[in-house]
């Protein structure tokens, strides 16, 4: 082949290479990351560029070029000789093609540091860490463009990739080259600089994820804040920089042979270990976000690494007993329910539930019973229809029993709590002028009913309903019914569903007292009497004697004559009652009567004090309307009330300072300050300060305790499936209930005789 042809071939190759370089420059100039199909100002479509790059690379790849052979020389023994040419190796052609892209990477890396000045700079480079983060973002854009430029190499000419197949793609090649260029550049200044930059980068990534304040606080150099904030926003959203996100799976190596993933993992875990502020109320939420981002960013490209990182992070936080306790303590103190659920979920999922159970016991030590229940109630609501729902509930049941040292005290606490909910609800009803169907849908109504239901659900789930209902009925329910008869009447008249309906539905026909509750409520709706006379609002309810707890039947007050203001309305009620209950004997129970009376004492808000009193107390106050000074003997003669009962009632007024005593006479204390002990509605209850006179012996009804013990005995024998002595059985049951007397336990054992066989004073369950 003639020399002129060889020169033409070489010139053709150089021309094609120059055209490819110009086309790449043009693409870099017009390329906009946010535009996918078209460039701004009507420039060439992306597909048109791709076609041009494909054609240019194909031409270059198939091009033949020649170069002067190193074996020949123009001068030999002083004589001019004709140059000798040889075919240019394919590797050389490929290298020149790659140099076009590599120069773009060199330009991007060069913007980080001025290579010529590296040897002359003293001290730390100003803001080099933040400049590095900006430069990485620019590098991502550079490599993204180059991957489009060299796209056809992956598909048509993979052998053109240096070190193929070890280097698997164009992206792999450029990423590896960029990493080495960063490292080479930094080592010219300081051998440790590149490692410091990578450490700073990982630290910033995690702080962006975990930070509770504004991202701007992470910017040191405010002059470049406008560049850094968009990048930090991407980190916060879970987008790692290209150097990590796209190359961890490629297992890129640093100059010393250490894998980038190893360096990344080490620093990633160092940062989470450093950020251990367990008093931070948002720590768990940020930890969850860190785990989520770790999974999201890495799982698609490096699943094994993401799983390892997440597990190591958990080991350093939730799965570490030393760290778990302060975490629980912080979130319990601040009632962070979602965070508490995440802690329990994490422990269950990783098999450390026992450690979590122990941590809960310690963390709740300084929390009041009411706050404890509030947290437990919200946890139960949160775990519904979520993973490990049943396991979390079992952990909560166990915590409840431990907190109250067994079922016995737990039932007492939950009954008291339910009563407080009912009282608050009825007080709200009392404050309303009227009820209507819209009120039934109010947030307060729904919240109140849900709070009450939450207790019943726990009681039912723990198989304590048959014990709870008798205790609640006797201890609280009937008393609340008497005190809020008017409010109960309002509710049933407007068909407002009360908690009694829920109890009845839950217990069914198996618990008689649950049916009795609904019978009483239905009786109030059908036969309750509401009457207004002489500016007195009155409600009268008739309750079957069988529905009245024994404790309320053991004490009665005999009032032969009522005050004049009450007598007329009392007579009217009797007429109506006799009509409704013509076939029944109805007996008034003055000891259960409850009245609210307006007094002349003025509160700080200029409203008159209203006192909540019994019938005997009301008789005393009524007489003060007639006489400035009264005596017990006169009151006894006037109303026919026992003197001892009157004395107890009178002393209750003396005890709060409303009445003063001089000798055997009593008079109102007009200097009385009524503001203490007044509720939000301006009402005050006048409690008895000394015990009422005993009418007959009263023994505590312990039937509900016996039933509770009976259930525990049967459960224990059934579980053990072996002969047990009386003491062994009692010890086992005591650990469940606590506070059990020997007498009550013996009685409960006798009531279980159908469930065990007895041999030599030892008991065993029989099927």
Automatic annotation (TrEMBL):
Signal peptide: none annotated. Belongs to the cullin family. PROSITE patterns: CULLIN_2. This is HBR404Wp. It comes from the Eukaryota. The lineage of its organism: Eukaryota, Fungi, Dikarya, Ascomycota, Saccharomycotina. Residues 409-654 form the Cullin family profile domain.
